Amino acid sequence: MKIETPGITRANEGMQGISWNILGQTYVPKSCTADSFSWHATLPPGTFVPPHVHPDQDEYLYILEGKLDFVLGDGETQGMPGDLVRLAMGVPHGIFNKSNQTAKVLFWVSPSRRLYDLFWGIHNLPEQNPDAVVALAAEYNVHFLPPPPGG
């Protein structure tokens, strides 16, 4: 990981021009050091991140546009523009765009661990099928939960 340098990552730009396709969503990395990794995400209607756990990272979302539904621990909640969503390490969470509009979100995790590398891995999968994504994520210490019974 590099040491952060002063500067501006411009709107609609990512680090080194990077843009990833992750589960039908677009992730654009904005900053990455050992302490923090941030990315802008565009979540089209109907896309989601299945429930999973980061055992050693706190994750945050600042919702810029749209609304998102969350599974957070044993409950469910919804976030709107201007909301900061805190997903504490070790707590299962899932993110769902059940609306008919695109959601735009600034995400970040702390510490970064290997999430940046995981996103490269998912982006480069020949096919982002659930089994392949789950297996790859486990190698990077992000653990997807099994679907609920009957789900």
Describe the SSE topology:
Elements: E1 20-22, E2 25-32, E3 37-43, E4 48-53, E5 58-65, E6 68-72, E7 75-79, E8 84-87, E9 93-96, E10 103-110, H1 115-123, H2 130-139, E11 143-144
Antiparallel strand pairs: 1-2, 2-3, 3-10, 4-9, 4-11, 5-8, 5-10, 6-7, 6-9
In angstroms, what is the radius of gyration?
A: 15 Å
CATH class descriptor name: Mainly Beta
Instruction: Name the average pLDDT.
Output: 93
Which segments are poorly predicted (pLDDT under 50) over 5 or more consecutive residues?
Answer: none
The CATH architecture category equals Sandwich
List keywords for this structure.
single chain, 151 residues, mainly beta, Jelly Rolls, 5-stranded antiparallel sheet, 2 helices
Question: Could you please describe the fold and organization of this structure?
Answer:
The chain contains two helices and eleven strands; from the N terminus they run ββββββββββααβ. It has 151 residues and is mainly beta. The chain has a single domain, classed as Jelly Rolls. It has a six-stranded antiparallel β-sheet with strand order 1-2-3-10-5-8, covered by helices on one side. The chain has a five-stranded antiparallel β-sheet with strand order 7-6-9-4-11, covered by helices on one side. It is globular and about 50 Å long. 20% of the residues are buried. The mean pLDDT is 93.
